[in-house]
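can u do me a favor
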């Protein structure tokens, strides 16, 4: 019997309401997912009590023998999952993992080249309001405005830009890019200009683990990820180095004054460089999630995420929605709502009233502010976890279309809410509040 309901009823009520919200509504935020009960259980353990600065076998605190086991399980499973030579599972988040990359590979003021946030990039890839844009000289590549490559990255332009700005590092990765990346072409460009290549695979990590999308590890010098999006683990981050391990050593050695392994530098950049004690309960939960992702069922899940996204994209296009790049290769789509006469902000609120959760999102070449936006981002990972198939997602598109076609119509909202609840009941989620 959980203590929390009687121990802290006020807090428990908020948790209960959030679990109900997750159970009863359509979760279409592309970066969210639903973890298993086992992952929740691992996170709710006494491992949260343990300080374990350092690495397994080399800690700055006593009593780490059992958390060492947990961290080693997480590391071994992550390496197997991504065929990586080395991993660090301690970053508290994707942003923390990314901070360690900058600290290792760049000096303040150095130039790097990343995908423009306004074209689907991420805050930590050089936004002027983020440390990455404040401390370093961020330059950007983007997507094409028109023509056959509209909404997609043209690698010839990336090469031209790299030659122009001569970056020390090139980043790949996005939070709202519905297409796959050509990692070999990025590496070719990085080699030509003598840059490090870093891939932030936070969004597609689960799809990459399941071989549903191209694999960056053979091409990038280093890869970061979150663990909670398509990978379906607890909130957290991770750094990986693939089979280019040897090649990266020489480049980094001069900075450290001795030939240090790339892994040593990244480990030091996580702790003590950017973090204190690792969150051992979260690392244990990462281990559970990686174990789940190593099972054949996870490959089926990842394949279904993409099938569902493609079915959804086709249904949106049939109904006259304008999808950036015309469709999707992965788990998400970015919808430009300008032809529908509704802003992203309003669409988010209208859909929320029907218990359909999406996020407003800038579209490339947007004429609205980031707080208003002209688009929404929609993703399939969370509802695919609940068992939604292509038919269910086509029904979701119908529900969204009805809400957005008649903004503020109470009758439509009520009908759609009822259908949302019925759909969610068909695919149950959590039958408990506290795991
Ligand atoms: N905030 C995340 C997202 O929603 O994509 C990226 O870190």
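np, heres the sequence
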């Amino acid at each position: 019997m959980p203590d929390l309901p009687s121990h802290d009823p006020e807090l428990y009520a908020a948790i209960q309401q959030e679990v109900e919200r997750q159970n009863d509504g359509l979760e279409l935020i592309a970066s969210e997912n639903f973890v298993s009960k086992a992952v929740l259980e691992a996170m709710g353990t006494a491992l949260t009590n343990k300080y374990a600065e350092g690495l397994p076998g080399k800690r700055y605190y006593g009593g780490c023998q059992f958390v060492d086991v947990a961290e080693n399980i997480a590391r071994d499973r992550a390496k197997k999952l991504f065929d990586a030579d080395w991993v660090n599972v301690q970053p508290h988040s994707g942003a923390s993992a990314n901070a360690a990359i900058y600290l290792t590979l760049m000096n303040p003021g150095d130039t790097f080249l990343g995908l423009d946030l306004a074209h689907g990039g991420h805050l930590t890839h050089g936004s002027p309001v983020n440390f990455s844009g404040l401390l370093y000289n961020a330059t950007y590549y983007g997507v094409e405005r028109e023509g056959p490559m509209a909404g997609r990255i043209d690698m010839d332009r990336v090469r031209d830009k790299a030659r122009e700005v001569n970056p020390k590092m090139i980043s790949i990765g996005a939070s709202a890019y519905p297409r796959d990346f050509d990692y070999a072409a990025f590496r070719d460009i990085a080699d030509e200009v003598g840059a490090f290549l870093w891939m932030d695979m936070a969004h597609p990590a689960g799809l990459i683990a399941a071989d549903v999308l191209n694999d960056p590890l053979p091409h990038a010098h280093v890869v970061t990820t979150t663990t909670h999006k398509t990978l379906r683990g607890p909130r957290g981050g991770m750094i990986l180095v693939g089979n280019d391990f040897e090649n990266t050593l020489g480049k980094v050695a001069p900075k450290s004054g001795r030939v240090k392994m790339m892994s040593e530098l990244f480990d030091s950049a996580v702790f003590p460089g950017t973090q204190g004690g690792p969150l051992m309960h979260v690392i244990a939960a990462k281990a559970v999630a990686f174990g789940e992702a190593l099972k054949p069922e996870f490959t089926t899940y990842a394949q279904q995420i993409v099938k569902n996204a493609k079915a959804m994209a086709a249904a949106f296009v049939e109904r006259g929605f304008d999808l950036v790049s015309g469709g999707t290769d992965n788990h998400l789509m970015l919808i430009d709502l300008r032809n529908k006469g509704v802003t992203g902000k309003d669409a988010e609120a209208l859909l929320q009233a029907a218990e359909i959760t999406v996020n407003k999102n800038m579209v490339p070449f947007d004429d609205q502010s980031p707080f208003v936006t002209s688009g929404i981002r929609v993703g399939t990972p969370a509802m695919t976890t609940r068992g939604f198939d292509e038919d269910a997602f086509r029904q979701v598109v119908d529900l969204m279309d009805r809400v957005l076609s008649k903004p503020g119509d109470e009758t439509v909202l009520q009908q759609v809410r009822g259908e949302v609840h019925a759909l969610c009941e068909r695919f149950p989620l959590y039958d408990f509040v506290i795991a």
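The first helix runs from residue 4 to 7. hope that helps!!
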